[in-house]
Structures are given as C-alpha cells and as structure tokens.
User: What shape does this take?
Amino acid sequence: MAEGEDLAAIRAGVAKLCEAFPDAYWRELDRARAYPEDFVRALTEAGYLAALIPEAYGGSGLSLRAATVILEEIHAQGGNAAACHAQMYIMGAILRHGSEEQKAEYLPRIASGELRLQAFGVTEPSSGTDTLSLRTTARREGDRYIINGQKIWTSRAEHSDLMLLLARTTPREAVARRTDGLSVFLVDMRAARGHGLTIRPIRTMMNHATTEVFFDNLEVPARNLIGEEGQGFRYILSGMNAERILIAAECIGDAKWFIRRARDYANARVLFGRPIGANQGVQFPIARAYAQMRAAELMVHHAAGRYDAGDAAGEEANIAKLLASEASWAAADMCVQTHGGFGFAEEYDVERKFRETRLYQVAPISTNMILAYLGQNVLGLPRSY
Ligand SMILES: Cc1cc2nc3c(=O)[nH]c(=O)nc-3n(C[C@H](O)[C@H](O)[C@H](O)COP(=O)(O)OP(=O)(O)OC[C@H]3O[C@@H](n4cnc5c(N)ncnc54)[C@H](O)[C@@H]3O)c2cc1C
Assistant: This one.
C-alpha cells in the first residue's frame, strides 16, 4: 500500500458506484450476453480503471493493493469486473517495457478512457497453456510487421481499441533459448478490423465477451513493437503476477458475496419452525466457507504487499490465485446448497455468480499449472514439461 492511500475510502467509493448497477442490471446482461457498457464507462470516468497508471501519465498511481480493493469490491457487490479488469494491468507491458514515445502516446489516453486496451492475445487453439508453442507469426518487412495466425479466448476484443499481442518473430528452431523469439505488439484494432483482422465471438457458460481472432496478413507498424524483438515472452511473464493477484481479489469478492447471501438466506428461510441456519448442517458449511475465504484473503494481501514492495512475488501471487479461486468456488457451491431449489433460479443471482466464479480455476491460468509452478520452481521437484 502506498503512503496516503485510504483503502476504506476506495472501497466505499466503489461500493457507491456499484449501487447504480444492481443485480437486475447484471441479470439482464447475462440473459442477453451483452457487454456492461454503462458500468465500464462509469468505472472509467471515476478513474478506477486507471488505478495503476502513474500520475505522470494521467492515472491515479495507486498501489496494487489498492487495485485489489477496487476489483474485490465490485465482485463483493455482485458485479463482474471481468468485463474490463484487463484495462488495469495489460498496460503494464507498455509502462515497464515500452519506449518513452509509446508511453506518452498511449498511457494518458488509456487513463482517460479515450482508448481502451482490454484485449490480450496470448492463448491459441493448438498450443493452449503451452505458450512457447504458439504459431502466430510476425514477419518484418521494412517499417512494418505482417501478422498471420489465430488467437482464441481473446476476451473483450470487440470492446477494445487496442490489443496486446504475443507473436513469434523468430522460428522456434532458430533461437538459442526456448523463451526467445516471441515479441509483443500493440495492435490498433480500429484500423485493423476488416483489413486482416477478423473477430468472432464465442458464446460461453457465463457472460464474458470472449472471442477468437484471426490474422490474415495484418500489417502492424514496426513502431508498435513493445521493447526488443524476441523478448516478448519475458514481458508477458513480468505482468502475470499482478494479474494473478488481481484475479485472486475478484475471487475473494465473489466468496464474500456468496457467504453474505447464504447467511441472509439461512437467517430468513424458516422451515420446521426455525431458520434453516440454526441447523448445523446448513450453518457449518457457511462458517467453513468463511474461514476458507479469510485464509485466502490474507494470502492475497500478503502477495499484493510483496509485489508493492518491489519483490517478484511469484510464489505468493500463484498461491493467492490458487487459494482464492478455490475459496470462491467452495463458497459458490455452499451458497447453492444453502438456497436449495432457489439456488438454481435466475432471479436469485446465485446461479449466475456460480457460473462466473468457476472460470478462475481455469483462466487466466489453470490450477494445475500453478501446482506445477509450486512443485517445480518453489519446491524443486522434477519438471513435467
Ligand atoms: C472465458 C475465458 C476467457 C479467457 N480470456 C483470455 C484472454 O483474454 N487472453 C488469453 O490469451 N487467454 C484467455 N483465456 C485462455 C486461458 O488463459 C486458457 O483457457 C487457460 O490458460 C488454459 O488453457 P487451455 O484452455 O488451452 O487449456 P489446455 O492448455 O489445453 O489445458 C487443458 C487442461 O490440461 C491441464 N494441463 C495441461 N498441461 C498440463 C501439464 N503439463 N500438467 C498438468 N496439467 C496440464 C490444464 O491445467 C487444463 O486443466 C481465456 C479462457 C477462458 C475460458
């Protein structure tokens, strides 16, 4: 946490903003699989999505810890920050690895909301988690790169002006280290759509605005390369810890929402002459979910603190994401059970949040890969890949 930051005030501000976007707002969007345009605009105008952009570039220059409070609170209020959370952290690639010109050109406009940078093109259909096997290529020709290939699960591509794209600039066989030869580009999708860039929405279990994106000889100016050619994988990795901590905070918010709803329902629903919450078979799962959430929450705070102190925080970020996504899922399951049949009814919103929170054990990184990281990188066990 940075000096002078008032986390309680930030939390209260976000909660106030969310009052204008009640359950019915999210329910309607979910039904129509529509994008929460008004919510994203309100968050942008209030400056929350520019939390991590330094003040020198028009943002609020807040700590990661403060950013976790913003995202957690949106979820605790029943909202879903997945529609725009990437705007907070993708810009980190420009901030940390971009040139002075790129920072000056893009960051202030991203901070003001004039430009949306919400699309992050890493995952591909054939390579999935095995990022180093990705096949999208960028070939240099004079002052531009020619991009060919395909991405999948590129969320928010239809609602973003810019995309941060990871593509191969040197064939895998021609690089010394397997992590070399990938590069990061800032693609201006406004200019590209219909000129080598095609976006196709994917309908998913929850309302997520995700897509697949096709590149067919798309031309990107060479000045849109971020940092050095061939070093892109490192740049992407450097942003992943922040992403994991922020997503973990959303899971904590979800868990708090489920626990609150379950508690209220268990207090209000009277059967056999007493509230169902008086039965230990109903009460104890709520208490257990609460304990699990609190333990995960501590880890999220710890990870954000280490990150803000300038540590890499890889171990803590991964553990925070693992524990928080499991805590939110356990709370979701408990909340459905507590509500009985009404847990399945749209108008209670439990089933919607249940579907939404399931994602975080798969994306942005699946639980197995976190366990592999801990096993191999932290505990020194043999590598599986
Ligand atoms: C709704 C949604 C939104 C997304 N948004 C984005 C986005 O904006 N940008 C983006 O780039 N990506 C995005 N993703 C992709 C997401 O990051 C991947 O789905 C995730 O990393 C898993 O990759 P995969 O789906 O290819 O699964 P795979 O890599 O095919 O893995 C399948 C299963 O096998 C397991 N597995 C694979 N290898 C191993 C191993 N060595 N050891 C143990 N287990 C293993 C995995 O853990 C997983 O459970 C999104 C995905 C979804 C579903």
